[in-house]
Give the backbone structure.
Amino acid sequence: MSMLGTAGKSDFKPILWTPGDWNAFFGFGTNILVNMLVLTGLLRFVLKMPDSLVFGRILPALGLMMCLSTFYYAWLAYRLAQKTGRSDVCALPSGVSVPHMFIVTFVIMLPITIKTGDPMKGWSAGLVWVFFQSFILMIGGFIAPYIRQITPRAALLGTLAGVSVTFISMRPALEMYMTPQIGLVCFAIILVSWFGGVKYPKNIPAGLVAIAVGMIIAWGSNLFGLGLGGLSLKGVGDAFASFGFSVPIPAIGEVFSGFEFLGIILVTAIPFGIYDLVEAMDNVESAEAAGDEYPTTRVLTADGVVSLIGCLMGNPFINAVYIGHPGWKAMGGRIGYSAATGIMVVVLSWFGIISVLLALVPVVAISPILLYIGMLIGAQAFQTTPVKHAPAIVLALTPHLAAWAKLQVDTMLGATLSAAQTVGALAPDKVGAVKSAAIASLPQQGVLYHGLEVMGGGSILAGLVLGAIGVFVIERDFMKASAFAFAGAILTYCGFMHGEAVGIGGGLGVTPGVALAYAVVAAGFLAVEKFGAGSLSVTHSEPPLAVPAE
């Protein structure tokens, strides 16, 4: 390695495919597959979009965007391997941003579709949302490296761990226990291989083994009338109706027709564009902690460019660097798995195969792979930072727990009100009043909804700011803690944290009291730094993190 690390670097030819790429391909490929299946379900069953639009326009554009992204990151990994002379470089994983897949669906496209009664209007609004976010990413790519320099790793990885524990891990974990006969068995198959190091016969990838076993259990259960996994021959037959070849078609007209909803769109597009920026930085930091240092500006600019291309071709979902680089690297992924996933996505989306896979593979067999990634990223935050920063990481987790809990409450309220309307027990003009009354009654039941709403608003930024404050207080660098608290005040004032509502001056976001509190905290830290640090009884001893081992 020392020879490769010097003069031989320029002559080093990275291997494009290794045996470990099979593991990463089946793992990451199934991750992408799950997201595409969920996304297709949202389009067809939530937004009620016609199959001609879903399979003929949106999915082909999505496939093009993701293929460009995965090929670019494979090329970037090849260049890094060539530059460093290392054979263990792993490409950054990328694909549709999962949190924002739900945001653009439920916050932008669904309300506009309901308001206008036209799914095409909702689609156009989604395209405009991505249009603006793409430019935020491209511009932010030149600012992000400076943010990484001044933000402690525990804050960057702590807020990322919060995303992984809540929005990445919880749903697949719950799905596993809803159908444990498949979910837990497949999870065990994943665990003993990717954590326990057990090799399956002929080095068959653990992800493929888990999917195969899940399919056998699901289809086998039909012989006994159990119906585990919800698969049926009728469903497979119906799925073949969506077969056909469709290529992306420019949708520039649809993009600009959506500008009529610009006021609604900007309220969320700007804050969430900034969240994408921070999340991408976190993921680049995660990759660097795992040994692969990628240029932040190139990564963010690439996300913005491919998202813009996808948008102009009809895809209303933004591209993002994924959580999980250390996981795919740990299971042997290098360069080829990324490009292979891009080819897979094009085949699935351009030939309408997604609907067939929805009918053949039980989603619960794939869920354990997502839980594994969440476990790994959550652990990385603690493993690659100083032990004394652990409390700051936990602090960075809390806004994400609040955001996830609020999402559960909101979903439950929405479903209840919809059901009440369906059975005729609630008049349409009473929905708002009933929802307000229900939320107002939650504190008496022990659910502090307003606290969840405020703390969870802008959770990625909030987690980063709180984590950084925690780190600098632990390090007794109160000047930097003050700076981050003041940044928190500004971000909250503008509506980027603790309440998504962009506004300056008369706008004040939605939580001016929180902004003022951050400013007071900043002033307090500054006072401690200037006047009180020497007189306070502060020691340099480590905080009590755990009971000593027996």
In short: Residues 1-8, 545-550 have pLDDT under 50 and may be disordered.
